[in-house]
Design goal:
This protein has 115 residues and is mainly beta. The protein has one helix and seven strands. It starts with 13 loop residues before the first strand and ends in a 12-residue tail after the last helix.
């Protein structure tokens, strides 16, 4: 019997709470929120009023004093919960910074399920 929830992610996500700014392309002001989980290819952010699927974003994620800057797109939207964000463009130095941060986090447990 096949698993009801088949993992489609390219990288495992690690649970963590990081400060994030989301700015939809063309909008002057960002929305501040935090992550529920993160990987090299995306994250899930907690938002009571999530953004629509397909929204293009400029994202800043603080893994320390310097933010990682990413171009991203909203992949999932769950009212009252948050958004699944897919990273679509990241500079090599920002990717390196995010990789180093992720190496400090514990491996996700198989029993964890994050939307």
């Amino acid at each position: 019997m096949e698993n009801a929830h088949q993992e489609r992610r390219r990288f495992s996500r690690c649970s963590c709470s990081l400060r994030v700014q989301l700015r939809p392309t063309g909008q002057p002001y960002p929305t501040n929120c935090e992550t529920a989980d993160i990987s090299l290819c995306g994250c899930y952010v907690k938002l009571m009023l999530p953004l629509p699927v397909g929204t293009l974003l400029d994202v800043r994620i603080w893994t320390g004093d310097t933010p990682v800057q990413v171009k991203a797109v909203v992949k999932t939207s769950h009212p009252g919960v948050g958004n699944g964000i897919d990273f679509i463009e990241m500079s090599s130095p920002d990717r390196f910074q995010l990789e180093r941060y992720l190496e400090t986090l514990p491996e996700p447990q198989a029993s964890e399920f994050i939307p």
